[in-house]
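Changelog-adjacent note: as of this version, every example in the card shows the full chain rather than a window. The one below runs 168 residues end to end.
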Amino acid sequence: NNISATKKVGANGTFTFNADTSQEGDYEFRLIFSKKGYENRIFTYKGTRTLTQEQRLSRIKDAATSPEYAKLKKNIDRYDGDMLTYEGTLISSEEKAGEWVMTLALKKTGESYSNFLILSSDSAPGYPLQSTLKVYGVLVGTNTLMNEDKQEMEVPKLQVRLLEGPGL
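Full-length structure tokens:
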């Protein structure tokens, strides 16, 4: 996978090397044996790392951070592409052009909501409106949302990786 290392065979005729295969995907290993005065011998090996669903979920949760909402909005570019997690109330959900777009309010005061996130997903949330959800998602910039005064506001947008519902 485009990483090279050179090793010398020890006096006992052996050598070792380590390859990072922690990420899910395909790997190719190519061993090239060379000795001055001889032709190189090349051996190619292929392998695949497949994670279980439990391992995938664990990695998502372990990678997630949860910056304060005001800090997130102020430094949106700093968090772009990061795995984030927040808990809030699902206040809207609709399918648009083959994608599910949801609004999650992180704060509720009386009957008013604030601190919004836009969530996008390939599948329906599977939870009714007003459910308390914990979302894990990758920040993909911002989206425009109309506030109660019919004014546009920019809010963070997450591409959903995992939604956890009632009984968190």
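Structural remarks: Residues 53-63 form the longest helix (11 residues).
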